[in-house]
Write a structure and sequence with these properties.
The structure holds 2 protein chains of 2 kinds. Chain A is mostly helical. Chain A has helices spanning 2-6, 22-29, 32-57, 73-79, 82-118, 124-136, 139-150, 157-164, 176-204, 208-216, 221-249, 253-258, 270-279, 284-307. In chain A, helix 5 (82-118) crosses helix 11, helix 7 crosses helix 9 (176-204) and helix 9 (176-204) packs across helix 11 (221-249). Chain A has 14 helices and no strands. Chain A has a domain at 81-266: Orthogonal Bundle (MetI-like fold). The two termini of chain A are 40 Å apart. By secondary structure, chain B is mostly helical. Chain B has 2 domains: 5-49, no CATH class; 60-279, MetI-like (MetI-like fold). In chain B, helix 3 packs across helix 13. The longest helix of chain B is centred in the first third of the chain and has 34 residues, at 67-100. In chain B, 47% of the residues are buried. Classes of the chains: A mainly alpha, B mainly alpha. The interface between A and B is large, with 101 and 103 residues.
């Protein structure tokens, strides 16, 4: 009976009482009943809405009207919209600055923590905990906290500190140029922890023998970083970039609470614009088209970054 | 091991950088705490009075005494925990099938489940709004919980698959020889052995659900149904400079439970995050 013991369970005959067999029993013994609950939920609350959004994008639907007719107006009105141009430029600068900032700072902290752990410095765990705690703070609270910090009232945290240092106060949120910078800072402050922990985990998997060999070859620190650390981190960096990119591109809470998209449209990114179009202007068709645009951008960028991954990690 | 002078200098630089970073990540929260214990008069002194001369817990008392606040916290606990439990319960069988069974289209199923993460909540909530309305699920915690569960499923399937992969297959085979059905094996052998992974996944869901804003923001308009995230946003929109200290207190109370869960259960949350990171 040794072959029974080594045979993988997937190939074992179904234990249903033979005679009642047939299609139902075969389905029951397969993966379907196991997958069904999860897949049904995703089908109902993700796949169906995406299909419905594509359909709605080609209608003139309004949020509270049930009558909808086929129309190209929602899609075609976007093509020549100068507002959409502004929104896309905002989305681009916000996303690029936030993603680069989160990855760079996350990598720097991860390297620092690994270096400190190697030297057995005390307080490493405390630093890691403090950085990660920022990630646990709800994004909506993050927006409120930074609004209190950037507050331009005479008693606002940063501005009153600047005044104490003899520096002129800065219009953090009311100046269109600064508002985007403020939104990026708030986003990086919260999101960095996620990059840090992912890259920290990846750094821990690099064989220390490589660094010992490099030390024997008298490699300089930047050489060790460039020729050992970075190449080994490449897959983790790319996966990290994909995840952060999707999160940042779809960010809603932090900006809503911090600036509400203002002043004017200075910090209004695609997700906020789509929300406003549907739930403030009730233009469901146009909003659906905008959300599809957001989805297409997300999927395209993910696909592009995936192509950069080494074959076996795809 | 004797450390060289250069190494000790480098250690000093590392310490300095660590201190700087700790300050950068702590100060915003400390500022919130500082505002929360100030009187209105001291709020207007700004950074000059980082540690208030007359600290007060009045702001917390006022926020907590407000019946609304208790309702918001209770709603958050309810939605977060039911959403997390639902996600783990529905993801576990799927993760087990992906970990243990061989079948055609398995790669496609896994890719499909993961790619759901690329879809933002906003994309699905726009069409779902009417759908949920027609089903009578708008404005209900039941309908909202279903969306929390759906949002949690992809990452949970992934985490639980990794957890099940670490339980040796030979135990399943032994159970099969002993005459246990597949489901009995899953429930009595695999699940108990993968308990740490299940706990990690539950806690990660809990933390993510505590932060959830968009789903309840769109689904729930009635004040008494809001979780704390929606409530503090609405409160922030209605406050003025004169009530800054109350907003700070409410905000701090809203994030404290999540921070407490994180600090106490950090090991589990890190395990979940890093499992996902290394295996990806």
């Amino acid at each position: 009976m040794t072959d029974t013991a080594t045979r993988p369970i997937a190939d074992a005959p179904p234990r249903t009482t033979g005679a009642r067999g047939g299609v139902a029993a075969r389905l029951a013994s397969g993966p379907l009943p196991w997958l069904l609950p999860a897949v049904a939920m995703l089908g109902l609350f993700y796949l169906y809405p995406v299909i419905e959004a594509v359909r709605l994008a080609f209608t003139d639907a309004r949020l509270f009207d049930t009558e909808t007719a086929f129309s190209m107006r929602s899609v075609s009105s976007l093509a020549g919209s100068s507002t959409l141009g502004t929104i896309l430029r905002n989305t681009l600068s916000y996303t690029v600055a936030s993603v680069v900032g989160q990855i760079a700072l996350g990598l720097a902290i991860a390297l620092l923590v690994v270096r400190a752990e190697r030297a057995r410095l005390r307080g490493t765990l405390v630093l890691r905990t403090i950085v990660l705690a920022a990630w646990v703070i709800p994004a909506i609270a993050n927006g409120i906290i930074w609004q209190l910090l950037f507050s331009e009232a005479p008693f606002g945290a940063i501005n009153s500190a600047l005044r104490m240092a003899g520096v002129a106060p800065v219009a953090w949120l009311s100046d269109p140029g600064n508002a985007m910078l403020s939104a990026v800072i708030a986003t990086i402050w919260q999101g960095t922890a996620y990059s840090m922990i992912l890259l920290y985990a990846a750094l821990k998997t690099i064989d220390t023998a490589l660094y010992e060999a490099a030390a024997i070859d008298a490699a300089r620190p930047w050489e060790r970083f460039w020729f050992i650390t970075l190449p080994h981190l490449r897959p983790a960096l790319l996966v990290n970039a994909i995840l952060i990119l999707i999160m940042t591109l779809n960010m809603f809470d932090t900006i809503l609470a911090l600036t509400g998209g203002g002043p004017g449209r200075a910090t209004e990114i695609l997700s906020l614009y789509a929300y406003g179009t549907v739930f403030q202007n009730f233009e469901l068709g146009r909003g659906a088209a905008l959300s599809m645009l957001l989805l297409v951008i997300s999927l395209t960028l993910t696909a592009l970054l995936t192509l950069l991954l080494p074959q076996e990690r795809r | 091991m004797v450390r060289s002078r250069a190494e000790r200098l480098a250690d000093l630089a590392v310490y300095a950088a660590m201190l700087l970073l700790a300050a950068a990540f702590l100060l915003p929260v400390l500022w919130l705490a500082s505002l929360a214990v100030r009187t209105q008069a001291e709020v207007f002194l700004g950074a000059a009075r980082f540690i208030p001369e007359a600290p007060t817990l009045d702001n917390f008392a006022r926020v907590l005494r407000d019946g609304g606040f208790q309702t918001y916290i209770w709603n958050t606990i309810k939605l977060s925990s039911l959403g997390a439990a639902g996600a783990v319960a529905l993801a576990a069988p799927a993760a087990y099938a992906l970990s243990r069974m061989r079948f055609r289209g398995k790669g496609a199923v896994m890719l499909g489940i993961l790619s759901v993460q690329m879809v933002s909540g906003l994309v699905v909530l726009i069409p779902l709004y009417r759908f949920m309305d027609r089903l009578g699920l708008l404005e209900s915690h039941f309908g909202t919980t279903l969306l929390y569960i759906a949002a949690g499923i992809p990452v949970t399937v992934w985490l639980l698959k990794i957890a099940f992969d670490t339980v040796p297959q030979t135990l399943d085979d032994a159970a099969a020889i002993d005459g246990l059905s597949r489901f009995e094996t899953f429930a009595m052998i695999t699940l108990p052995l993968a308990l740490p992974g299940l706990v990690s996944a539950f806690i990660l869901n809990l933390i993510l659900n505590w932060s959830q804003f968009l789903i309840p923001f769109i689904m729930l308009t009635a004040d008494e149904t809001w979780p704390i995230s929606v409530a503090i946003f609405r409160f922030a929109g209605s406050t003025s400079a004169a009530t800054t200290q109350l907003l700070a207190a409410a905000c701090l109370l809203a994030i404290l439970p999540a921070l407490a869960i994180f600090i106490v259960l950090q090991r589990w949350i890190l395990a979940a995050l890093m499992a996902g990171a290394v295996k990806q």
